[in-house]
Description:
Layout: H1 4-14, H2 18-30, H3 37-44, H4 58-69, H5 73-82, H6 84-109
Helix pairs in contact: 1-2, 1-3, 2-4, 3-4
Amino acid sequence: MTSxxxxxxxxxxxxxxxxxxxxxxxxxxxxxxxxxxxxxxLLLTPFAASYGHPRGDGxxxxxxxxRSAGIxxxxxxxxxxQRPAIGAALEGxxxxxVREQLRTIVAGLQP
Length: 111
């Protein structure tokens, strides 16, 4: 039995189509078992140059793979904001921070 990380790295090496491998990674991250992204980036290191990244830049290849899978940090943040309770909480936090910054700016403008 191989790990999810090893399987994804093997698929990157053998298949070469990151969109297909990205689907596998996306499915794996939806499961209950966590994917060790740090370990995966190490396993991807030998293949980075084949995908247009600097030689040995496994983290860059992992980020490309995550983007193709729709599980990059921006996609994750968008998904979180879509959840009503989290979106409302974030809106409240941002509103408070903006109000505080505006008060500071206005106070600085007054003689």
